[in-house]
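Encoded backbone
================
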Amino acid sequence: MTRTRPPRAASVSGGLASIVGGSVAGQGVVVVGYPLLTRLYDPAEFGLLTVFTSIVGILAVLSTASLETAIPIPGEDREATAVAWAGIGFVVLTALVTGALGWVVAAPLGRLLGVPALAGFWWLVPLTVLALGIYQLLSDWMVRERSYPALGRRNLFQGVGQVSTQAALGCAGAGAGGLLLGLGVGRLCAMGGLLSHRGLLRQPWPGLASVRAAVRRFRRFPLLAAPSTLLNSAGLDIPMLITSAVYGDARAGLLGLTVRVVGTPSAIIGQAAYQVFTGESGARLRRADGQLGFAVRGAALRLCAVGLLPAVALVAAGPQLFGLVFGQRWIEAGDYARLLAVAYLAQFVVTPVGSTLALLERQGQQLGWAALRLTLTAGCPLVCGIVHAPIKTAIIGLCCAHVLSYLLLYALCVRAADASDRTDRVRSG
């Protein structure tokens, strides 16, 4: 039997600082690079990147069968290793199927989404899905190990790899392909957790029987959590695809820049908070200390304090900031950022604690919430497109849909955490 290591002493604030430090440095490279990229690539090329990112993002989420969220749960390292290798098998299979389907769907899908050039770049889709899927699995392996400094360094490598590739290919005149290729290269530069001291390849091979047993043990993740995670990703990505199909690739490019400049830094810092919250809450649940509800509320409050000032700045001066930094043709993207500021604040505050439902294996609630969020976020721009409403009206509706969805998710997480704490106190008392 594989011995389980006792939890290492690690403070939440120290772990968060380690990840955020690397994340901020990596994202700093990305942010500094965008003023150059917006002058090397036009809005239509950013529109193709927006569609490409949405497609590979949805497929990458599907590819792991949500087994990455099960990696921090097992008490024994051998079982966690089996879960990770099962996830890698699903990723490889998804990439192969995606590549094969490209022969049939790439051209019509590109025309439907208003980016016919997508067909010529479909060969990059399965490769990027492979890189993103393995990246997700290794991230949660490092979360299990509570390797927070390594996670921070990896986030830095990702930013440097992505921006340097996009900038170099843009200067070489590669066109939209440079933007697309940089996405996968950045993840390849950030494959931490594989060969490190406690990396996945350093663990004994669990054997096919153990891998199958792990899939059976955590079958609720592929069966319920995977559809929920897919719907959750679709709730963010489908509106981008609808925008491209209804309002054109240039408008999709403007919205895509907004998402990257505003949403990506928020998501990266939020992901750092998510990783620390998940690692510490997983350890907390194994100790059954009855304090999960306190942790959920405290994490949300701290994140709100961090995110409030940037949101206010976007509302006050979004267009002026975008025009100054990215050039005059991107001022409209600043208007989009102003309209979406509250939605990004809600996402930043609630998403990190959203892992509460997965840790408590309440995948049914997670699935229901994700379906509702997708209905709201996809329905608003779709209805606006059908009635020929201005794109700003669609974005206001999208903001309202996100805010309502995240308020509901927070309420579900608090209620689930409080119920778990009551059970722990009964068992211990």
